[in-house]
Specification:
Chain A: Keywords: Membrane, Transmembrane, Transmembrane helix, Transport. The complex is a heterodimer of chains A (224) and B (355). Chain A is an all-alpha fold. Helices cover 77% and strands 0% of the residues of chain A. Chain B contains 13 helices and 16 strands. The longest helix of chain B is centred in the middle third of the chain and has 18 residues. Classes of the chains: A mainly alpha (224), B alpha/beta (355).
Chain lengths: 224, 355
């Protein structure tokens, strides 16, 4: 063990694409899918739920409380609960992670809509917008920067949380940690960490780019 | 014409914002609702385009009860300018101005062409069209707000404290700009402000409202300053009513006499000052064609010898007016000695009463 180098490049070369389910490229692909599906589902659910929380204010407190409780549960506990329902499948990871994403995205949607200045909303009413068009053409577009900020947090934390799924055999790159740990062999651990960080940085960078393109009007950009 | 008939707005908690308000807003003129906060002026304004619905009473627009009109349709036909401009931050200036034309279903080309006309009308550089609101100053944003309100050429314009968030110099220029626009457009404008000076400057008619949503007095600005209906109005108008009233009397009638030889002018006939043993002394000028009696008096007070210099548009001397000439006119326009003057809406004059 003492002579063992931190990274053995030949191991990486042999295991990058060996055709099997434990190939690094296969794990990477798995990781990407399991990290992004929860964010996607989370966004699809958070938009209507967030809108409902804005429309009916009383709904927000209980929703936020429920989401915070969910967020405080260790991910492993949630995985175990869903293990008994969905078994050793991707869903056992994707469903709990969707709840984590929701815990970030619902407040982001609510805060985003709250960030629309009152003068903007009122002038939209005064110009003669009907409610649906006002929401789609004025309020949601103005809420985009705040929603995107939440989306960045949800995406990065989802990418990192997927690895915990390795404990039930569905952890994408996280499986490399178990492998390395069990064999006291550093290379897979280093590769796993490097790829997860790289993935997180890349995803965050893409979202920042999306924000620049979507909101050229944002004041924040001038000072950024 | 907009009419309020016994309009009351009572909120669920029992607060009365507007109490049996009845008044008429004439077409083609600026009517200002002014009063302290809590007097219901903004509520009254918003009941016109139904952003707030009255509890009882009727508001009619050219004879039609506004309650019979679908609110979005009603609002597209009424321009609205809000305090912080309320521009859409995610839309370019040109598209902000074209908001109502878009809502009315105009095609993009026509709506944008109209928006460009309006930017020009309100005195904005067309180069700003492709900018976003955050790139404009407060004063520019407010001009865009006015352009947006005018885009679909509505006959009625509602302005809710539109100039109160900008600094005094910009505010003065926006006010002058509004008066210039109005002289061309002749819209029916309802303007809400808490600033009595702004009300007196802009209003053809000023409706002073008191806390609790009651109308205290409605009159032209000159009448308001001469004959406030009661102590509340008098106090609200503040100091210097006598002097401020002179703003509404034209200096045209000031009797001019030829310039004396001690007024030194340059070769074009523009005044330089009064010749004295020590050199040139200060002089004040006014233009009798465009200025008020207040400006003439000011010019006299600024002159070392108390004689105001009348000039034409090019600034050339036309004559002079001493304080005696100004005093003659002041006497002519003195407030009535006792009892209500003809045309006063109510109340007598109680000059000298403690305020």
């Amino acid at each position: 063990m003492t002579d063992e180098p931190l990274v053995r490049w030949d191991w990486i070369a042999r295991n990058w694409a060996n055709g099997g389910p434990t190939a690094i490229s296969a794990l990477l692909e798995n990781h990407v899918v399991m990290a992004f599906l929860p964010v996607l589902f989370g966004l699809v659910v958070a938009l209507p739920l967030g809108l409902a929380c804005v429309r009916w204010r009383w709904l927000y407190q209980p929703t936020a409380a429920l989401m915070n409780v969910t967020y405080s549960l260790p991910s492993l506990v949630l995985f175990s609960i869903f293990l008994s329902i969905t078994g050793l499948t991707r869903s056992t990871v994707v469903i709990p992670l969707t709840f984590f994403a929701l815990a970030v995205l619902i407040p982001a949607v609510v805060d985003g809509l709250a960030s629309v200045p009152d003068s903007v909303r009122q002038s939209a009413v005064a110009m003669g917008f009907r409610p649906a068009r006002r929401l789609l053409r004025v309020e949601l577009p103005v809420a985009v920067p705040v929603v995107l900020a939440g989306l960045r947090v949800a995406t990065v934390s989802s990418i990192s949380l997927v690895s915990v799924g390795a404990l039930i055999g569905q952890g994408g790159l996280g499986n490399l940690f178990i492998d390395g740990w069990q064999r006291q062999f550093y290379t897979p651990i280093v590769v796993g960490i490097a790829l997860i960080v790289l993935l997180a940085v890349l995803a965050d960078g893409l979202l920042v780019l999306a924000q620049r393109l979507l909101t050229p009007w944002s004041r924040a950009r001038r000072t950024a | 014409m907009i009419t309020f008939e016994d309009v009351t707005k009572r909120y669920r908690d029992g607060t009365v914002a507007v109490d049996e308000l009845s008044l008429e807003v004439p077409n083609g003129a600026i009517t200002v609702f002014v009063g302290p906060s809590g007097c219901g002026k903004t509520t009254s304004l918003r009941m016109i385009n139904r952003m707030i619905d009255a509890t009882s009473g009727r508001i009619t627009l050219d004879g039609q009860d506004v309650r019979e009109i679908d609110p979005p349709t009603l609002r597209r036909g009424i321009g609205y300018v809000i305090q912080q401009a309320g521009l859409f931050p995610h839309r370019k200036i040109v598209d902000n101005v074209a908001t109502v034309p878009y809502l009315l279903g105009w095609n993009k080309k026509k709506a944008r062409a109209r928006a460009m006309e309006l930017l020009d009308l309100v005195g904005l550089d067309p180069g700003l069209a492709d900018r976003y609101p955050f790139q404009l100053s407060g004063g520019q944003q407010q001009r865009v707000g006015v352009a947006r309100a005018l885009a679909a050429d509505p006959p009625v314009l509602l302005m809710d404290e539109p100039f109160s968030a900008v600094d005094p110099i910009v505010r003065a220029s926006l006010q002058d700009e509004l008066l210039r626009l109005q002289s061309e457009l002749r819209k029916t404008i309802v303007f809400v402000t808490h600033d009595i000076d702004e009300a007196v400057k802009l209003g053809d008619t000023v409706a002073v409202m008191r806390v609790g949503g009651r109308l205290a007095q409605m009159a032209g600005p000159a009448t308001l300053l001469t004959e406030p209906a009661d102590d509340f109005v008098r106090e609200f108008l503040g100091r210097d009513r006598g002097i401020r009233r002179l703003s509404f009397i034209s200096a045209k009638e000031v009797r001019l006499r030829p310039a004396p030889s001690d007024l030194v002018t340059d070769e074009d006939g523009r005044p330089l000052g009064w010749r004295t043993a020590e050199g040139l002394a200060a002089h004040g000028t006014f233009n009798p064609e465009t200025d008020s009696l207040r400006a003439a008096l000011d010019a006299a007070l600024l002159s070392a010898n108390g004689t105001a210099v009348a000039v034409d548009e090019e600034g050339r001397v036309r004559g002079v007016a001493g304080r005696d000439a100004i005093d003659e006119l002041l006497a002519e326009y003195a407030p009535p000695a006792a009892g209500p003057a003809p045309g006063a809406s109510r109340g007598g004059t109680s000059e000298g009463a403690p305020t």
